[in-house]
Write a structure and sequence with these properties.
The complex is a heterodimer of chains A (449) and B (188). Chain A is mostly helical. Chain A has one domain (18-135, 166-442). Chain A contains 15 helices and no strands. With 188 residues, chain B is an alpha+beta fold. Chain B has 2 domains: 2-60 and 137-187, Alpha-Beta Plaits; 64-129, no CATH class. Helices cover 41% and strands 14% of the residues of chain B. Chain B contains 5 helices and 5 strands; from the N terminus they run E-H-E-H-H-H-E-H-E-E. Chain B has helices at residues 24-36, 53-56, 64-90, 107-129, 162-171, and strands at 16-21, 41-45, 150-155, 176-181, 184-187. In chain B, a hairpin with a 2-residue loop joins strand 4 and strand 5 (184-187). The mean pLDDT of chain B is 85. Classes of the chains: A mainly alpha (449), B alpha+beta (188). At the A-B interface, helix 1, helix 5, helix 6, helix 7 and helix 15 of A face strand 2, helix 3 and helix 4 of B.
Chain lengths: 449, 188
């Protein structure tokens, strides 16, 4: 016999029934868009426009409109690529890793985190694709016969591993997200009134009825996909880190990069999840579903991963000193005290020092404060990538090639524009799809032991 | 193709008894009672997964895990063969005079390919096995079965005492009892 728990805190508050869950979560879908949604969506479209203009300039004029040069050949573009890939990691972590660990608090937040993953990976992919310069031959990155104009791809190159890793990550995350959405799309299908809505939700719900056998298989496939996605999420950022670690550039040539990058990705991803969900819970009145308990759990992960990243920063310094390699030592001294000291110390303050505030209960349970901190985390993580890429490259082995680098207007526009892509997709998602997994949340209403 | 076979549709069944529940515990009790009485349950429809129901009605354990393993093997073989063909057989590239044969640098691509084939192979089999296809018409017995209601469907067979079955469902918390005849439902 199953009993209701007397000691465990409720994951969904407000004594909700299954019908309440359906009504609350489908409200934004069934009703006209709210004023706040319209304002947010319009702002996103403006940023999307900035992206369009910047991209047009990049393609029409050429990569020369970026400030990258022979010494700093990776600048804002790859910084932004790693930044967005990192953000994408929390979605799979919440869906997959927390599912394997049977963490039921994930159920209210996994849907939007998964959506975030997909949109973030799309934003990330923009940068390496357009950095190629001749984007119309981008398919050369795929393993195609020599007749297409190039030799077979180089399987020793981490850049090729990236092509496989990012595309696999995107595809598997999309499948995971879609399979999870089917039962909820069916619920909406049975609620909407208009013919067009009925057709489209009916089309994507694939005839779902909620049969017991289907549910059993659904749970099994979710578990196996979670088992697959867990090593996948670790592999993707490990591979991204090898883009740097397999080189001989001082500051990049370090074996600590894979775990350090994975921890950083989870850190920044949770930062973005917190940013989105704190706004969503307020605007969409989801306080009973995304509770203070959820926010507190996320802040704990932010604090732990922030500390791991912090230890990695310090370890890099120690190893540079301990290695006795003067180039390595200079790279790190230059990071902290050279011309880009402000970027380095922004990174240290935002990523290592600031999250330590979450040792205090008040900080972990005050939504407006967590919101500010989540932005601080993402600013810090952008600076981390900037520091790794630009400070390592701008002063290489050859002093005669030393340069300073700052992003051009087009590069800045592209970065801001990706926020336009991300938030436009997210607002559309929030309008037409349930941002909380209704079917899963209904299983935790009774707080069973 | 089972996925498009109209005979499997509930609308085309000759006669079925349908019970509707609003409480998951009572649904589980009713299912156990019906199975105990030797009634074959066609299926149960719930808005969220109710654990244990599939075991009570004697549904066979899913073999999706085996499918996943096989798809993984296919993916692994495909990727290994692809890299070997391109990198060793067709156009060996001399990188730092290192031998052109299996190296750890193949592993990331092999791994990603294996994961991709496993996920999508398993996904397609999952859709096929559950008759899930974009555009397929849904067979709903209750319009709230994807919201907050749970439904048991029992196919009437020769020798089945229908009033006993209805009584068992009623005494175990069914809020509504219906009869389904060629797609037409009548409340009992």
């Amino acid at each position: 016999m199953i009993h209701d728990s007397l000691i465990r805190e409720r994951l969904v508050t407000g004594d909700k029934t299954a019908a309440d869950v359906t009504r609350d979560i489908t409200r934004p879908i069934l009703n006209q868009p709210t004023k706040s949604w319209k304002i947010g969506f319009t702002l996103s479209l403006i940023f999307l426009g900035i992206f369009g203009i910047s991209l047009f300039n990049t393609i029409w004029t050429g990569i020369g409109v970026w400030n990258i040069n022979k010494t700093v050949m990776w600048g804002w573009d790859i910084t932004n690529f790693v930044f967005w890939v990192g953000i994408g990691h929390a979605g799979t972590l919440i869906s997959a890793v927390l599912l394997l660990f049977r963490q039921k608090w994930r159920m209210s937040i996994n849907r939007s985190a998964e959506a975030m993953t997909i949109f973030a990976v799309v934003c990330a992919a923009m940068f390496p694709v357009f950095h190629m310069g001749r984007v119309w031959v981008g398919y050369w990155a795929l393993p195609l016969p020599n007749a297409f104009g190039s030799l077979w791809v180089n399987f020793n190159s981490p850049l090729l591993w990236d092509v496989f890793a990012i595309s696999t990550y995107f595809s598997v995350s999309l499948l995971f997200w879609y399979i999870g959405l089917i039962p909820d799309i069916a619920t909406i299908r049975d609620k909407v009134k208009t013919k067009t809505a009925k057709f489209w939700y009916g089309f994507f719900s694939m005839g779902w009825t909620g049969s017991t056998r289907t549910w059993a298989r659904y749970e099994l496939i979710s578990l196996i996909l979670a088992g697959l996605s867990t090593p996948l999420v670790l592999s993707v950022h490990t591979i991204v880190s090898t883009d740097f670690a397999t080189s001989i550039v001082p500051g990049w040539h370090t074996t600590i990069f894979p775990p350090y990058f994975v921890a950083g990705a989870i850190f920044s991803g949770f930062g973005m999840v917190a940013t989105l969900l704190i706004v969503a819970r307020k605007v969409m009145n989801y306080e009973n579903y995304i509770t203070i308990g959820h926010l507190e759990a996320m802040t704990k992960i932010i604090m732990v991963t922030g500390s791991i990243v912090g230890i990695a920063y310090l370890t890099e310094f120690f190893i540079a000193w301990y290695s006795g390699v003067e180039y390595e030592q200079y790279a790190f001294i230059n990071r902290a005290t050279g011309p880009y000291w402000w970027a380095y110390w922004s990174m240290m303050s935002c990523n290592l020092i600031a999250p330590q505030v979450f040792w205090f209960k008040w900080a972990r349970t005050t939504p407006w404060f967590i919101f500010i901190m989540s932005i601080v985390v993402n600013v810090g993580m952008w600076f981390e990538r900037f520091v790794i890429i630009v400070t390592s490259l701008h002063r290489d082995y050859l002093p005669s090639s030393w340069v300073m680098y700052s992003g051009s207007l087009t590069e800045i526009g592209l970065f801001l524009g990706t926020f336009g892509i991300f938030f436009t997709c997210f607002f559309l998602f929030a309008k037409y799809m349930p941002v909380i997994n209704m079917a899963e949340v209904k299983t935790i209403l009774r707080n069973r032991e | 193709m089972g996925i498009l076979d109209k005979k499997l549709s509930l609308r085309n069944r000759s006669k079925m008894l349908v019970g509707v529940w609003e409480d998951e515990d009572k649904l589980v009790e009713a299912t156990s009672a019906l199975v105990h009485d030797g009634i074959h349950i066609h299926d149960i429809y719930t808005p969220y997964p109710v654990h244990g129901l599939e075991r009570i009605i004697g549904a066979r354990r899913s073999r999706l895990a085996r499918v996943a393993f096989l798809c993984g093997l296919v993916g692994f073989t495909l990727m290994t063969t692809m890299i070997w063909y391109m990198y060793v057989l067709d156009w060996p590239v001399n990188v730092g005079n290192k031998p052109v044969r299996f190296t750890p640098s193949w592993i990331p691509v092999m791994f990603e390919g294996t994961v991709l084939c496993t996920a999508y192979g398993m996904g397609f089999i999952f859709f096929w096995r559950n008759r899930l296809l974009m555009g397929v018409k849904n067979d709903l017995l209750d319009e709230r079965q994807t919201d907050d209601r749970m439904v048991i469907a029992i196919e009437c067979v020769d020798g089945m005492n229908e009033s006993d079955v209805l009584n068992t469902m009623k005494s175990n918390g069914a809020v509504e009892l219906r009869e389904l005849n060629h797609g037409v439902q009548t409340t009992i």
